[in-house]
Amino acid sequence: MSKLTTLHEFIVAKQKDFPFASGELSRLLSDIALAAKIVSNDVRKAGLVDHILGAQGGQNVQGEEQQKLDVVADEAFIRAFENGGEVCGIASEENDDYLAFSSEAAQKGNYVVLFDPLDGSSNIDVNVSIGTIFSIYRRISPNGTPATLADMLQTGDQQVAAGYVLYGSSTILVYSTGKGVNGFTLDPAIGEFFLSHPDMKMPEEGRLYSINEGNLQDFNPTLRAYLDYCQSDQNQTGKPYSGRYIGSLVADFHRNLIKGGIYIYPTVPSAPQGRLRLLYECNPLAFIAEQAGGLATDGQQRILAIKPSQLHQRVGFYIGSKKMVEKAMGN
Ligand code: AFP
Predict the structure, then answer these.
(1) Do 283 and 115 form a contact (C-beta atoms < 8 A)?
(2) What is the pLDDT of residue 280?
(3) Do 245 and 290 belong to one domain?
(4) Which end of the chain is more exposed for a tag (fewer CB within 10 A), N or C?
């Protein structure tokens, strides 16, 4: 039997690859894995809690008010970061403003984390895959002081690590520290992540396209022409591509990463800046995509080169197999 590699073993073995090999980033990644296990456990119970145990006026079995799962996930990750000692502040999809941790220990942390605790949360009630997305930067404010907005508003190219957790038919954690992409599947029986997808590469070409075609009338002519190409037999495969849209970015991205494909959420009149958030949805996935040989743009420029001006900034998003993204942009 070949030896299994746990996430912890893998993180420790790769520690020397990090630009600042003090063990801090390793511990932070382990904190993320711990929070992911807690959230995975909550997600697995969501249907039970919402529809059976909590059917009485939104209360749980102890008579306490049920919290929404995205709030539960947000709190689990914040707790892990605040207690870990490596993170001085966070920004999350769930909170209007960023959070600078107040404890002396946390202010000595060298990292900030930006994350979406539960993306695709409108899918929870219908038992469809959802995910957590995270992005890690070194702080630029002085160590020992509270985290600042400038720590949060760094360009995606400055990320030191990024990743996601997909709560699907199994729970998988995929991350990169800028030296390739690796995926780890959770064994729920023993609560351990094992290396299941080493050195992930995104195929240069694919035949899956993921887009909300309900917005078709609002797409720009270049994008409409690309969709015509996808649906015709004039593309490089000689037959129409397959449309696949889960409406859960992490799940759509993960499938396309493995099989080859493109996910597009363009700017449209109902979302003139785009729908997805630059800092904690697009940047981390763009980092993973590029590390796996794929490409991510806003339709014009690389996502990772965009200088953010706001915490919850939205952008158009084209991500996936390199040649497909280039073609969709009209190149
Ligand atoms: P929710 O978290 O509100 O479900 O949004 C999910 C999401 O951010 C992303 O995961 C989907 O790909 C995208 O929005 C779906 O948006 P549309 O419903 O407009 O297609």
Answers:
(1) no
(2) 96
(3) yes
(4) N
**Per-residue confidence (pLDDT) for residue 61, from 0 to 100:** 47
* Domain final residue, candidates 140, 169, 197: 197
Q: Report, in angstroms and rounded to the nearest whole number, the Rg of the chain calculated over CA atoms.
A: 20
Q: Is the dihedral of CA 287, 22, 112, 92 positive or negative?
A: positive
Task: Show which of 153, 178, 197 is a domain's final residue.
Answer: 197
How far from 184 is each of 200, 261, 268, CA to CA, in Å?
A: 11, 21, 36
Q: Are residues 177 and 243 in the same domain?
A: no
99-100 and 87-92 as β-strands: parallel, antiparallel, unpaired?
A: antiparallel
**Burial call 6-17: b when 16+ CB within 10 Å, e when fewer:** bbeebbeebbee
Length of the chain: 331
Ligand 1, CB cutoff 6 Å, lining residues? 119-123, 212, 247-249, 275-276
Residue of minimum CA distance from atom 7 in ligand 1: 120
Q: Domain of residue 105: give its range.
A: 7-197
Do 166 and 284 fall within a single domain? no
| Residue 231 shares a structural domain with residue 189 | no
**pLDDT of res. 65:** 55
Q: What pLDDT score does 123 carry?
A: 87
Tell how far the Cα of 145 is from the centroid of ligand 1, in angstroms: 36
Name which residue sits closest to atom 5 of ligand 1, judged by CA. Answer: 120
Provide the pLDDT for residue 243.
97
Domain count, the chain: 2
In ligand 1, which atom is closest to the CA atom of 118?
2
> Of 262, 275, 281, 319, which is best to mutate to test ligand 1, by the most ligand atoms within 8 angstroms of its C-beta?
275
**In-domain check, residue 203:** no
Q: What is the whole-number distance in angstroms between the Cα of residue 144 and the centre of ligand 1?
A: 38
Asked if residue 202 is part of any domain, the answer here is no
Nearest-CA neighbor of 167 among 46, 271, 261, 86?
Answer: 46
Blockwise average pLDDT, block size 10, the chain, 331 residues: 85 78 86 96 78 49 63 94 95 96 95 96 88 98 97 98 97 96 97 97 97 95 97 91 97 98 96 96 98 98 98 98 97 87
CB 303 within 8 A of CB 282: yes
